[in-house]
Write a structure and sequence with these properties.
The protein has about 280 residues and is α/β, with parallel strands linked by helices. It has a single domain, classed as Rossmann fold. Helix content is about 45%, strand content about 15%. The chain has 10 helices and 7 strands. Strands 3-2-1-4-5-6-7 form a 7-stranded parallel beta sheet, sandwiched between helices. Helix 4 links the parallel strand 4 and strand 5. The chain is globular and about 55 Å long.
Length: about 280
């Protein structure tokens, strides 16, 4: 096939690509002529997205991989499949993630272990596999989606927040390890956003979910631009920047109290107008 102008020789792998941030990342990379490897559990939706972007932007190739990264075997299977196809991953976007809402002593352990596998173990394994190849080529970029809760404990989302704290620490450590190479790692730290996260985490009625939500388009754009500039970290959104900054000043106990308030269910009384309270 005839080569297209732009980044047609470059390929990006995006996990969790069928909706939310992942979908918006796919649009941004496709617009800049990157070939796509799209990974998600929902195969049909992923195929529709991938082939639509391929036609719209005349991409040389789009590879669709239906895979559940909560399975320990998935990262190696993805890597092996791409090796067999002869596809080189120039940019890795570790976006897939999930959470669960509730008191830790009441939530399901099996589900939390799956979240740890998805949010932490799969990120570590994919990064290990593809970073080794990037180091061998002395070229590559990785974007890891962390969170504003990476900076603070989050009661009622304890496991999720802890996994995102890991991602931030992990990313920043690797930044130092490859600082003398032509490789960059970027941590994207969004706040509460208008995605399926709260619904899937059974947290739709929390104050955070009912508050001001960032658009996935804006978050992805911030992450994309930071990645391309080789920035180490980007906190998306002004209010989230303030919240992340406060984590350097306030004690962890105060941060935990604030986050618990945000993650508690919003009572109906808070939705009433001032007149209705009279």
């Amino acid at each position: 096939m005839k080569q297209m102008e732009g980044n047609n020789q470059k390929t990006v792998l995006i996990t969790g690509a069928s909706n939310g941030f992942g979908l918006e990342f796919a649009k941004l990379f496709a617009k800049d002529k990157y070939n796509l490897v799209l990974v998600a559990r929902s195969g049909d939706r992923l195929k529709k997205l991938g082939y639509s972007l391929q036609d719209e932007h005349q991409l040389e190739h789009v590879c669709i991989i239906q895979s559940d990264l909560a399975r320990p075997e998935s990262p190696q299977e993805i890597y092996d499949q791409l090796k067999q196809k002869g596809i080189t991953v120039d940019i890795l976007v570790n976006n897939a993630g999930a959470g669960i809402h509730g008191f830790f002593h009441e939530t399901e352990l099996d589900r939390e272990l799956e979240i740890i596998q998805l949010n932490v173990a799969s990120v570590v394994q994919l990064t290990k596999l593809f970073l080794k190849d990037m180091v061998a080529r002395n070229e590559g970029k990785i974007l890891n989606v962390a969170s504003v809760v990476s900076f603070m404990p989050s009661p009622l989302m304890a496991v999720y927040a802890a996994t995102k704290a890991f991602i931030l620490s992990f990313t920043e450590a690797l930044q130092n390890e490859v600082k003398d190479k032509n490789i960059t790692l970027t941590a994207l730290c969004p706040g509460a956003s208008d995605t399926l996260f709260f619904k899937r985490a059974e947290a739709e009625n929390t104050r955070a979910a009912q508050g001001q939500l960032s658009s996935p388009e804006d978050v992805a754009k911030d992450g994309y631009e930071a990645l391309m500039k080789g920035e180490s970290r980007i906190v998306s959104g002004v209010l989230n920047k303030v919240q992340a900054g406060a984590s350097n000043i306030l004690p962890d106990s105060a941060l935990a109290s604030t986050m618990r308030y945000q993650m508690e269910e919003k009572p109906a009384s808070e939705n009433r107008s001032p007149e209705s309270k009279l």
